Amino acid sequence: MIQTMIHWFLSLIYGPGTLFLEHAERAHLVAVGFGILLAVSLLRAGMLRRMTQLGVLVTTCAWVLFGLDEQKMQGQGYNIRADYFFKWPVLLAITFIAIVFVVRDLMASKSICVDPANKR
After folding, report:
1. How many whole angstroms separate alpha carbon 95 and alpha carbon 74?
2. Per-residue pLDDT of the chain (120 residues; tens, 9 = 90+)
């Protein structure tokens, strides 16, 4: 029972990461997506808070670094990746937190814009 739960938890955490192992271009695509989100939020004043923009910037940089490291590992022919067990959970946590902050800010800005006459 405990082994099954641990296996399920580990596959939940590390399963999505296998999409990016040996595919640095996919990590760079995620970085481009966060970069576009950051650029749009900077162009549209008030879309996201400054702290959220900083979080998106950190997430973009983290994905770029992950992609560059993945390219380096590919080029050297490494196939046993112990570093993945440390990097992936951190990258996943940073990404999840950035997405939560972006959604929170977008929901807050929508609720303000929906009915500006409603002043509570």
Report:
1. 23
2. 888 888 777 777 777 777 777 788 989 999 999 999 999 888 887 778 888 999 999 999 999 999 999 888 888 877 667 778 888 889 999 999 999 999 998 888 776 555 555 554
Residue with tokens 């998106």: 56
Q: Model's pTM, two decimal places? A: 0.77
Q: What totals of helices (H) and strands (E) does the chain contain, helices first?
A: 4, 0
Torsion-angle region of 78 (φ positive above 0: left; ψ -120 to 50: alpha; else: beta): beta
Q: Is 36 helix (H, G, I), strand (E, B) or coil?
A: helix
Label residue 43 exposed, middle or buried (CB < 10 Å: 0-12, 13-18, 19+). Answer: exposed
111 Cβ neighbours under 8 A, 6+ residues apart: none
Backbone angles phi, psi at 46, to 5 degrees: 85, 0
